[in-house]
Every structure is written in structure tokens, then in C-alpha cells.
């Protein structure tokens, strides 16, 4: 693994590189509240054998500088931010992969910078939240994330692990390291998320201002969606999301992981990686 920081017009970006730079490049974008290794660390042992993998810490997350204005977190502006990074570290077309919020960024990047994208990979994102979930009004989502940020202050790492183990079917020491990496220790000895409430709530607003479905008609790149099958309460939202994708994206592949929750790369790392590799090798 090689770890880098690079300066772009909007601050410093932190990223990790794995594999041979002469192999096809896969750029990875993580989910809201996370960081690059938290989202993709479980996939690296499988992907780095045949691909050059670059994992970013998105703005305001991990060790990447936050953006100063609320509108900076709109997906159209995040796509421009990603393109500044791409211009510094990637030569030629590449594959772009995102999980959750990162999938929405990847989708919008593919919309606005189609010539750079050889293929788009969506990991359980950019097809249900929030617009295909009837209960997910703006007020519901905004209040939920606001409350989540307020209560995400812990007295110990043990408390962090108890909170985050619900996101995985199997818990282990490596996932404890991933979870701990999302937090910083305050002067009074407590642990709080590295990402700020300002950034999180700006991102929640962006989901409603620039819906994923508005990007679909512009996507011409081959697209792979790998999604969770749990919780079952989201099944209708998944069906509707896949229908919308299929209506607009001609070259679309979809796979459901029957034993996975939202963190599919934690619950089924080998199967997720196999699906990605198999799809990439056909391109």
C-alpha cells in the first residue's frame, strides 16, 4: 500500500494506492461518515492482484480537508472536485466505483465527465435513498442525520465498537480498526466523528437537490450495480431503483447479494470482489 496526500485548488486530498499502476485503474469513493479504508479495505486483497486501485478520502472525511460552503457538497460540485483529483493522479480512462453516498458521487461524475469513465460500479447506492423510500422525506432524513451526529460522541472505543457492530453480520478486530479510524479523540477524552455535522447535513441536502434519477439518462458507460438484499423492508425501493436504472442505462448489470446488508463489502467481501472482477474482465 502506498499512502499519499495531494494539494488541489480546494485543499488537501488523502488517498491510498494498491496494485500495479500498469493495470486498469479503479477509483473508489466511500460512503457518508466513513473513509476510504473503512469502505474498501476488505476488498483490497482481492482487487489489487489484477487492478490498480485508488481509494480516496472524500471531502471532510478521513484526512481530506473539508469544503467550506454548503453548496460545495452538491453532487455536481463534488464531481468537479473528483475531476481535480483525477487530473493530478490518473492518466487516461478509468473505472469508478462508489459505495452508498460514494456511489452517488460516482454516478454524477460519470454524468459530467463521461470521456474519463470506462465503467461505473455502484455498491448499494445511487438507486434507493432517498427518493424511492416513501418514508424518507427531507425532514425525516435531515432530522435523523442531525440526531445521529449529536449522539455519535462516545466515552470509549468499546462504545464505538458496540455501535458499529450492528452494521456487519460478522465482527472482528479489523472492523474495529476501521470503526476507530472514523473518530478523533477530544481534549476531554471523548471520541467524536472526524466528519463535521456541517458537512453531513450539507450532503443530506444534496441528495434532495440533485436526485440520482436525474443523472440516469446521461449515463452511457457500462454500469454494474451490486446491492444488498437486507433489510427486506427496502425490497420495493430496490425493485423501483433497478427499474429506473434499466429504463435509462442500456449496458447495465445487476447483482443482489442475498446474505448482505448495506455494507456488502463487509458481509460478502469475496463475493463482492468476484462480481466486480468478473465484470471488469469482460470490459
UniProtKB/TrEMBL annotation:
Residues 24-269 form the AB hydrolase-1 domain. The keyword Transmembrane does not apply. One of its GO terms (cellular component) is membrane. One of its GO terms (molecular function) is hydrolase activity. PANTHER family: AB HYDROLASE SUPERFAMILY PROTEIN YCLE, MONOACYLGLYCEROL LIPASE. SUPFAM superfamilies: alpha/beta-Hydrolases. This is Alpha/beta hydrolase. Gene3D superfamilies: alpha/beta hydrolase (3.40.50.1820). It comes from Planococcus rifietoensis. Keywords: Hydrolase. Pfam families: Abhydrolase_1.
Amino acid at each position: 500500500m502506498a499512502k499519499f496526500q495531494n494539494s488541489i485548488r480546494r485543499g488537501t486530498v488523502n488517498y491510498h494506492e494498491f496494485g500495479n499502476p500498469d493495470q486498469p485503474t479503479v477509483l473508489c469513493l466511500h460512503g457518508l461518515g466513513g473513509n476510504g479504508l473503512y469502505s474498501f479495505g476488505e476488498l483490497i486483497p482481492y482487487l489489487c492482484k489484477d487492478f490498480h486501485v485508488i481509494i480516496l478520502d472524500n471531502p471532510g472525511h478521513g484526512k481530506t480537508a473539508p469544503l467550506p460552503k454548503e453548496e460545495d457538497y452538491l453532487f455536481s460540485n463534488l464531481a468537479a472536485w473528483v475531476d481535480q483529483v483525477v487530473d493530478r493522479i490518473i492518466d487516461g480512462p478509468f473505472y469508478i466505483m462508489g459505495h452508498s453516498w460514494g456511489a452517488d458521487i460516482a454516478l454524477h461524475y460519470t454524468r459530467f465527465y463521461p470521456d474519463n469513465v470506462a465503467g461505473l460500479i455502484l455498491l448499494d447506492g445511487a438507486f434507493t435513498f432517498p427518493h424511492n423510500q416513501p418514508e424518507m422525506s427531507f425532514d425525516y432524513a435531515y432530522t435523523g442525520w442531525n440526531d445521529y451526529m449529536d449522539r455519535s460522541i462516545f466515552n470509549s472505543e468499546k462504545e464505538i465498537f458496540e455501535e458499529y457492530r450492528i452494521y456487519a453480520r460478522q465482527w472482528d478486530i479489523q472492523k474495529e480498526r476501521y470503526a476507530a479510524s472514523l473518530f478523533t479523540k477530544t481534549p476531554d477524552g471523548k471520541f467524536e466523528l472526524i466528519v463535521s455535522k456541517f458537512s453531513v447535513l450539507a450532503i443530506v441536502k444534496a441528495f434532495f437537490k440533485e436526485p440520482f434519477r436525474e443523472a440516469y439518462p446521461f449515463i452511457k458507460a457500462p454500469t454494474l450495480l451490486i446491492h444488498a438484499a437486507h433489510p427486506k423492508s427496502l425490497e420495493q425501493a430496490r425493485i423501483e431503483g433497478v427499474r429506473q436504472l434499466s429504463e435509462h442505462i442500456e449496458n447495465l448489470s445487476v447483482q443482489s447479494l442475498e446474505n448482505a446488508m448495506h455494507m456488502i463489502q463487509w458481509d460478502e467481501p469475496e463475493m463482492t470482489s468476484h462480481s466486480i472482477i468478473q465484470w471488469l474482465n469482460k470490459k
